[in-house]
Amino acid sequence: MRSSTSRAAALLVVASCGALAPPVRPGAPAGALWARVPGASAAEYAAVYGPRDCASPAGDGMDERIFALNEGLVGATKGAIDALYEGRDFARFYVLETLARVPYFAYLSVMHLRETFGDRRPGDSERMRTHYAEADNELHHLLIMESLGGNSSAVDRTLAQSMAFFYFWYVTVVYSFSEPAAYHLSELIEDHAFNTYDDFIKDHGPKLKGMPVPDIARKYYERDDPYLRDQFLTVKETDGGFTSRSRPPLESLYDVFVNIRDDEKEHWKTLCNLVQFDDLGGDAAGAPEPTRPCVVVGDECFIEGEDECAAEPVLVASR
């Protein structure tokens, strides 16, 4: 009893002196405040740093250790590809799009295997259709890059396909044990993809506007039945619609890359919702936000959030 009282008092002291400490930021020393009072329970910690009558993130966070691992893997891989393909954008995009399809294959493989053995979970059918639509979308991104000559080198094809082979098995194993961890890895990848295409459009806009639309892009975005494209648009637009028909017309290669960039953003939204809410639609009350790291303590995970009762950043229980 005495030690419990001492820990609670220590937590209160640390909390009251929060202004003297550097703010906790996502991904960095997220567990620093907790470490100052060793042995404090999750309930004691939450009572001080996570008052339930103050603001709390709507969705779950990601264990900071897994968060850091995924960030490291994505950052290292993307950095290596960017360095290797500097000045060869279409070849770089070919490699990236070859890899981009792989996670959706892995998700579907695991879900089909579970279903084969009678493990049918509510919502799985809709999720499987969405993942198939996402894979089909990434396939067409890949076909567009191939039409632009991105796969003209046998070395590039061998590298991309070899990486995809090992990546498939890695994601399959991770997804089998932790769906949120696998989805978070893809969330980071899709975020990188969006920013990569966005930077490319900004840097090469005038040149792209003078280049023709590949036939495969016109077929996919204009002539094909939009059912599969609409299937992966899981987050409602502001007007409440899900349709892809509102996309800009294809007048040049610039418009093709705008569509590809926006596709990646839609995948990112879905993945954010799957990580944080275990649901394709997520929190209907607001737009998706990036998943944040949290500190696992016992059965709860504490995530940084803004406390309406204090000016200082605090950690609140995310689940």
Automatic annotation (TrEMBL):
InterPro entries listed in its UniProt record: AOX, AOX_sf
Required cofactor(s): Fe cation
Secretion signal, residue range per the UniProt entry: 1-21
Pfam short name (any one): AOX
Keyword line: Electron transport, Iron, Membrane, Metal-binding, Oxidoreductase, Respiratory chain, Signal, Transmembrane, Transmembrane helix, Transport
Cell compartment(s), UniProt: Membrane
The keyword Secreted is annotated on this UniProt entry: no
Family: Belongs to the alternative oxidase family.
Name of the protein: Ubiquinol:oxygen oxidoreductase
Organism per entry: Aureococcus anophagefferens (Harmful bloom alga)
